Amino acid sequence: MAKMMYRDAVVSTIAEEMARDENVVCLGEDIVGGMGTPGGPEAIGGIWSTSTGLFGKFGADRVIDTPISESAIMGAAAGLALSGKRPIAELMFADFIGVSLDQIWNQLAKFRYMFGGKTKCPAVIRMAYGAGYNAAAQHSQAVHQILTGMPGLKVVMPTTPDDVKGLLRTAIRDDDPVIFLEHKALYGVKGEVSDDPDYMIPFGHARLSRAGQDVTIVSTGLLLGFCEAVADKLAAEGIGCDVIDLRTTSPLDEETILDSVEVTGRLIVVDEAPPRCSLGADICALVAEKAFASLKAPPLSVNPPHTPVPFARELETAYLPSVDKIEAAVRKVLSYR
Amino acid sequence: MQLSREALLRAYRQMKVIREFEERLHVDIQTGEIAGFTHLYCGQEAVAVGVCEHLSVEDKIVSTHRGHGHCLAKGCDVNGMMKEIWGSREGLCKGKGGSMHIADVDKGMLGANGIVGAGAPIAVGAGIAAKIDGKGHVAITFSGDGACNQGTTFEAMNMAVVTKAATIFVFENNHYSEHTGFEYAVGTNKDIASRAEAFGMKVWRGDGTDFFSVYETMREVLDYVRVPGNGPAAVEFDTERFFGHFEGDPQRYRGPGELDRIREMRDCLKNFRKSVIDAGLLEHADIDALDAEVLEAIEESVRQAKAADRPTAEDVLTDVYISY
Ligand SMILES: Cc1ncc(C[n+]2csc(CCOP(=O)(O)OP(=O)(O)O)c2C)c(N)n1
Ligand SMILES: [Mg+2]
Description:
The complex is a heterodimer of chains A (about 325) and B (about 325).
Chain A: E1 2-5, H1 6-20, E2 24-29, H2 54-58, E3 63-66, H3 70-82, E4 86-91, H4 97-108, H5 111-114, E5 124-129, H6 144-148, E6 154-156, H7 161-173, E7 178-183, E8 190-193, E9 207-210, E10 215-219, H8 222-235, E11 241-245, E12 248-250, H9 254-264, E13 267-270, H10 279-290, E14 300-302, H11 313-319, H12 323-334
Parallel strand pairs in A: 2-3, 2-4, 4-5, 5-7, 6-7, 10-11, 10-13, 13-14
Antiparallel strand pairs in A: 1-8, 6-12, 9-11
Chain B: H1 5-30, H2 45-52, E1 60-62, H3 68-73, H4 78-85, H5 119-133, E2 139-144, H6 151-163, E3 167-173, E4 176-177, E5 180-181, H7 182-185, H8 193-198, E6 202-207, H9 211-225, E7 233-238, H10 258-265, H11 268-278, H12 284-307
Parallel strand pairs in B: 1-2, 2-3, 3-7, 6-7
Antiparallel strand pairs in B: 4-5
The structure holds thiamine diphosphate and magnesium ion.
């Protein structure tokens, strides 16, 4: 076990997989940084430092710094994947799926199905998502609810450095297109990670981060820590929460959720995306359908409101689910006795 | 054509407002009181002002993530902008947009924009509207040497040509997109204007650190585009960005002495002062008086921003729709 930051787990996993398999190539804006400048290549890495050192190790053919052309980057990833390579393409901000969605949604995601199962498309699309930086409406969004609804894509949302390691390796070795969502507020978080060179976490397997008998809380990403804080606080009062980190939203680990709700009878989904057609709506519907008899309270979802992400500190704080809002939701479902 | 004394003083004042607005932000951001990502326009003032001094409120502009200069030059209120960047509910966008989304549609300023390359298509729409209205108004999109590589920019250029939109593509080549040099990222041999030419547009080029070069070039461009039926045009200005890509950027991609050199040789304010004094058009005292006045105006805007009302949780929910 080594201790490292979430962002370093990203870089080290990419480096290990590039060393292991020469078909793995990276592309994205400023992933080398300094190309065509007096400072030269790697004068400065990408803005999240999630590709530091790759260019020096693997060279310009396999670490491709691109112009600002998201549509072409996503399309190139699709074309590389159809041509025997295993691209890892970076979108600097998840919000930029807006510029490039056709290549992700109508191309990459659908090739295998449209081509009658005769091809594979092993591309990883990494992107930094989420609020917390007062970066306003076009640089703060959680986009998983859009991508999770797209058949053909797998959607991964790691919370801890160890999850980054295990899930990113699985993503790179997976033969289907994978969306890998990195929360920008977690990049600096440190944690223990496995140093097994083949450490992989299978998709569709959630992680139980707190165990309890009274309420099931489902979340992932930045907000998982908020849920854990609520669970720890309530544990002192004798209230037990199962806190489930989904890890992947597609595929979804239905079994872990349903098993937990069958015991607790109460469900809260805590999600950073807006409420309509959301992960919360999806999982609440799942539980209503498949665990109806166990329910002791209506399933609840804690989301930001149906608005764009605002800029000012006070507004962004009010926008995001908070420890207080999550705690209030838990107390609400507990009030149905 | 010789500019009047008033026009010269006004142009200098506009550039100086942008400069001091930004220099002050650069200082205040270090204290941590200002949230979010801020991209400073310092160094490029001659472009915003040399373009916008020709425009009326009926002419529209669409800006970028580096939008403060365009906003100020187009007439956005200094105090309203400072309050917005400080996240106040009295700000120009009620603290909802911040630095990257300042807009004042009534002034013909259709928004800074956080999405690189998003502005050009919007300016095509505004340019088509101007064409339909037939009053000789125009729409201008500012794009960087990075934004010129975005597919949206290419689509917008072609569509402007085929629709004969009254749109002007102003390319501000400051040689960097984030940490990448334009010589690497722009494939057309160090040249952006030739792309617009290839799409069928008449193009111009000018020195974006010299107000007079920008102003005179834009007079020709505007004379052309304001004629009904002529359609769009493009212009590339070579310019400099004095600060990092965003506040906090360590700028290790710069060459030795580069920042000192561009501040020394390619400062549009210094160049302006020298030109008008050498030509005997203004006195040092005229300019010094403006400098002092502008500094005080910026100081006042910061005082107001610090004292202004903060937004509340309820404000999150307003302004999403007109009715719902
Ligand atoms: C669609 C999109 N891609 C990437 C970015 C990140 N980004 C913001 S500014 C920038 C560089 C823009 O360079 P340029 O157009 O030359 O403008 P400058 O910053 O020099 O003013 C990049 C890559 C973005 N905001 N939007
Ligand atoms: Mg640039």
